[in-house]
Amino acid sequence: MSANTQSTTAAAGTSPAGITPAPAPQLNGTLQKDPNAPPVYSVINGLLCWIPDLQTMSNLIAPPPTINPNQNLAEIAVGTPLTSGAVLVKGDVDDSTYLVSNGVKMWIPTETIFGNYQFNWAKVVVVPQIVINSIPDGPQLDGPQQSA
Fold first, then answer.
1. Does one domain contain both 10 and 65?
2. Is there a single domain that holds both residue 8 and residue 39?
3. Which domain, by its residues, includes 22?
4. Of 35, 40, 72, 76, which residue is least crowded by CB atoms under 10 Å?
C-alpha cells in the first residue's frame, strides 16, 4: 500500500476522541465523500472502501454518480480500498455478476443490489467461465440493512 493510500484511507477511519468507527450496513451501496477532502468511498458491506481513481469509478459506476457528502466519515469503519482497475464481470455460461477487486470476486446476488451500488450494466465484462471459476470467492455484496 502506498503512502498516499495509507494517509487517504486513514483519514476516513480516524475518529474524534470517544468515537469508535463502526460498520454502517445501512449505507451499503452508497458513495460517500467528506465535503472537505477529495477521496470518494463506496460503502461495501458496511465498510468505507476507497475508490482510488477515476478509471476505477468509470469501470464500475453508472453516470452520473450520486455521491453523498458526509462530514461523519470518521464514524464509519474503513475497509480495504478497491483495486485500481477493479471491474464488473460475469461468465459466458453463468449469469452471476461479480465485482472483482483485490484478487477476489464478490457476488452481486440481485439486480436490486447491483442498482444500490450504482453499478453500470454497460460496464460488465463477459469472460470465459473458466476465468470466473478460477478467481477466489470473496464476500457477497449486501444491500442496505437497517441499523441495530
1. yes
2. yes
3. 3-75
4. 35
User: And the C-alpha cell for 28?
Assistant: 451499503
At residue 84's C-alpha, the angle toward residues 83 and 89, to 5°, is 70
Find out whether 35 and 69 touch, Cβ atoms under 8 Å.
yes
| 32 belongs to a structural domain | yes
3 and 10 Cβ atoms separated by less than 8 Å: no
Asked whether residue 19 is assigned to any structural domain, the reply reads: yes
Contact 118, 86 (CB under 8 A): no
pLDDT tens sequence across 71-124: 999 999 999 999 999 999 999 999 999 999 999 999 999 999 999 999 999 999
Q: 91 and 60, same structural domain?
A: no
Strand, helix or coil at 1? coil
The pairing of strands 47-51 and 40-44 is: antiparallel
**Set of cell numbers at residue 131:** 476465468
Alpha-carbon distance of 34 to 37, in angstroms, equals 5
Band (pLDDT 50/70/90 cuts) for residue 20 is: confident
- Strand-pair category, 104-108 with 47-51: unpaired
